[in-house]
Amino acid sequence: MATLRQLEYLVTVVDTGSFTRAAEQLHVTQPALSHQMRALERAVGGPLLERLPRSVRLTPMGRSVLPHARAALAEVERLRAVARRTAGLEEGELEVAAIYSVSLGILPPVLRAWRRLHPGVRIRLREYPHADRLQAAMAAGRADVAVGPAPVDWEGPIRELGVEEFVVVLPADDPSAGRSTGAVPLAELADRAWVHYAPDNGLAGLLDRVAAQAGFHPRAAVRAEQTSAAPLLAAAGLGPALVPANIVPPHFDGVVLRPDPPVRRTLTAYTRTRPDPLTVAFADLLAEQARVEPSRAAPGEGEVGRGGGGGEGA
User: Fold this and answer.
1) Which of 113, 121, 301, 307 shows the greatest Cβ crowding within 10 Å of its Cβ?
2) Nearest C-alpha neighbor of 167 from the set 200, 207, 130, 225
3) Nearest-CA neighbor of 280 among 171, 177, 144, 170?
4) pLDDT per residue as tens digits for the range 123-151
């Protein structure tokens, strides 16, 4: 059976491109390294590396094994970090997963505050375009805490962070821009070509749903891969965009209106069933400091529902 040490040897040889440099980095002799590599090859049933005059090259089997070796080593490091945190040490790594728009609008000030409180804890941020993929990543153990819409059938703790509003972005010279009410009926924009989202971005499904509720299907003038691009494209005149209010950048030269009826979603932070103390502390900080745009409309009216199947945020 392959050992973690042998997997570390394989990864180091590949990363350094040399048995000699790998042995130096690992503080072992080259014969010992070669012996362990042969033992690993016997364990997996075939050659993993081909020695070249000045380097090494992975065999087809080696290319298949290498990603699993890296994943196993990464998981071991995560286990060590959890153990250190459980022991109360102010070091290690916290993995935070979020949907795209949350990492743009809500997380930066929270991460800034966290860094002041826990400078020895590294933050690794993983971003996902869809709430379903976010929940799947959490279920697979790829992060310690997730920030996004409430997950479906989740057994671990869930903290509500607040209700976020969406806004419609238009260029400054748009005929609908000068409304004294600050709101625009979505049905009034039915004939427009919209700044839409790429199909794997959950906001694509959200826009389609709220437009259907208003009686139309939004035509796409352009589809944005990145959520942050949508308000900029709308301000440039490519079409209206429906975006989370908190991602609109400061000193924005477009017009921001509330959709009528309002569009909202509830954001949460959730963890696995038994989070460690450091994860709990981060979730607490999120609940205290996350700046979610407060709702200005009647509860339940136009809100993007909590739960699955819904887009980046729904």
Assistant:
1) 121
2) 207
3) 144
4) 999 999 999 999 999 999 899 999 999 99
